Amino acid sequence: MDQEFIDSLLESGICYVPTLTREVSTYIYGTRPGFFDDEFFTEYANESEIERLSEPAYMERTRESASGAAYRVALVQAMENMVILQDAGAPVTFGTDAGPAGRFPGYFEHMELALMVGGGLTPTQALLAATSVAASCLGIDDIGTLEPGKWADFIVLDEDPTRDITYTQLIDQVYVAGQPIRTKTEN
Q1: Could you give the CA distance from residue 67 to residue 74 in angstroms, rounded to a whole number?
Q2: What is the pLDDT of residue 173?
């Protein structure tokens, strides 16, 4: 990434979406990932998909995949680019490409936040990327922050995720349009 590209991005106002979990999803199933035993993951994960990804033949193909090896290298570059652009003042936002096989909606969002922090953003920067920066990048004014007149879709956590981004998994309550739809005791 050169300065000309950075300047072009800054001038155009284009948002940068690292989608780090995309790279991870190409190689992580070369062995059985630890999150397959994580209760936060398994509570909602599709068991047949876990079984498919855990098959020895599938894991061997993944380990031997040239594209998986290339994406492992690309992940490091993507993290470096994310920090360069964040430091330059570009809007770094949040995305996962979750949905295709091997990318688990819900869990991969938490993984993306952790990867963003592991790549060099602060927890606060990662949270802003997923909330107010994302809303701004999409041009949507009624989401992204908690303010009067906005939708108020948010979660209440048991711990402060600005101290440790993995605390986003400690969900106590979920609100949509300001109304509680789930609490920890309802699980």
Answers
A1: 10
A2: 96
Token pair in block for residue 167: 């605390």
CA 144, 151, 140, 96 torsion-angle sign: positive
Q: Where are the domains of the chain?
A: 3-141
Question: How many whole angstroms separate alpha carbon 21 and alpha carbon 123?
Answer: 17
Edge-to-edge, what's the strand order for the sheet holding 171-176? 154-157, 171-176, 179-183
Q: At 22, which helix (H) or strand (E)?
A: helix 20-25
Give 10-residue mean pLDDT values along the chain (187 residues): 94 96 95 96 93 97 95 96 97 91 92 98 98 97 94 95 98 94 74
| CA distance linking residue 85 with residue 55, whole number of Å | 39
Q: Is the full-model pTM beyond 0.90?
A: yes
